[in-house]
Amino acid sequence: MKVSIEIRSKSSQEWLSAVMNDFDSFLQDHADCERKASAMALSFIAKYPMRTEIVPELIETALEELEHFQQVYDVMRARGVELASEIEKDVYINKLIALSASGGEKRFMDRLLLASVIECRGTERFKMVSETVEDTELKKFYKMLWTVEAKHGNIFVAMALRYFDEKEVYDRLDYFMEEEVKILASIKPRAAVH
Fold first, then answer.
1. Measured between alpha carbons, how far is 156 from 118 in angstroms, rounded to an integer?
2. CB neighbour list of residue 147: distance below 8 Å, 6 or more residues apart
3. How far apart are CA 129 and CA 27, in angstroms?
4. Taking residues 133-159, what's their average pLDDT?
5. How many DSSP H helices and E strands does the chain contain?
6. Model confidence pLDDT, tens digit, residues 41-78
7. How far apart are CA 117 and CA 122, in angstroms?
């Protein structure tokens, strides 16, 4: 049973240039994304407490994302960058979530699969940053980060496969991956993870 997934398009040079030209804003957004990722993993536990088979993995993911937040925050402090005063709405995330079913079992599956898509895009972008940024410490940090984050997309697919038919999971995942390409193309690149 396959659990690894691949995104369908590469992020643009325009996005990478936006990040490199305003790295402090990118760090602020990255910190916000790590906080939201930790909260998202915990929200699965709150919404689906009867799914006891995946609770340990969700706890581990939440803790890992919180640790990443702390690491990004440490980088920010070293550079004299403050946390953003408020977390901006993420158009990319909101458009993806709008694709999910409105309730029941289908929504549970969709949210797991969308978490996979989001994690895979973040991994790709952290890798691009690690390969481009000139600062040695940032290069090392983002290389470590993308290698750790790479497993998160697969974890959420594996969770979905515990509860749903493999064909149903991969058909739905295929749909989300195709739509994600369109959503990404519709958003103006900025110094942010998404």
1. 10
2. none
3. 11
4. 91
5. 7, 0
6. 999 999 999 999 999 999 999 999 999 999 999 999 99
7. 9
The number of residues in the chain equals 194
User: Tens digits of per-residue pLDDT, 160-187?
Assistant: 999 999 999 999 999 999 999 999 999 9
**Backbone CA torsion sign across 93, 98, 148, 13:** negative
Q: What token pair was written down for 94?
A: 């909101």
Amino acid in the structure at residue 172: R
How far CA 63 is from CA of 35, 36, 87, 125, 192, in Å, comes to: 10, 12, 20, 21, 22
Q: Where are the domains of the chain?
A: 13-186
Residue with tokens 């898509």: 117
Please, which pLDDT band fits residue 85 given cuts at 50, 70 and 90? confident
* 13-186 CATH: 1.20.1260.10
CB neighbours of 56 closer than 8 A, spacing ≥ 6? none
Contact between residue 61 and residue 67 where contact means Cβ atoms under 8 Å apart: no
